[in-house]
Amino acid sequence: MKDRSLLVQLAGDMPVFKIIDFLVENKGLDFSKKQIIDGADISKATLFNYWQEVEKAGIVTPTRRFGKTVLFTLNNKNPVVKKILELETELIRRVLLQEKQSILSKREILVTA
Predict the structure, then answer these.
(1) Is the whole-model pTM more than 0.85?
(2) Domain 6-112 in CATH 3.40.50.970
């Protein structure tokens, strides 16, 4: 199992957030439902329990089709997705700021020691 992303740490391990998180982490790429199942580390049944909700909310958009297989990508034009991406950016910014402050604090301790 992979490390939990900042988004999943904040929002929780709900399957819908795991699906969204996988798509956010791979924005700009398109995936089959099977690839989303594997990437989000969820079961097929779980994906199908939440997929209609994800589609209805406009979080994903179909990109292309290979026979019966449809590929989907994160819908960057959706206002909810835009807010999720803003949230992700802010979470990353805060972690980086905390890391920077931690490094500076350690340097001050070394200099004064």
Answers:
(1) no
(2) no
